[in-house]
Design brief:
97 residues; mainly beta; Phage tail proteins - horseshoe like beta roll fold; seven-stranded antiparallel beta sheet; globular
Length: 97
Amino acid sequence: MTLRFEGYKKSPDGFGTGTYEVLHPKGASIEITRSMFEGDVLQITSVRNTPDPALEKARGIRFYDGNKKLFDGYLRAPDYRRGSNKYRTLTTGVYKG
């Protein structure tokens, strides 16, 4: 099983079609859940001592197992919770669009 996590990246000029780049959310746990009201949600939780700019902005997210796409959605509403020793917990929801 080879898991791959990708995020949308705009074209350099900002007008063309962008591409998806591989992201490496270090120390993250990834969970896919289904809710009656929100539909499918991919939840990313990581404990960090520095911000993760790749997961802080709204963008398209794809999650693969090899070549099989497991999830295709839109990242929104990152939430940092302060912990001890300058560590923060980042929880981000990715919603199917």
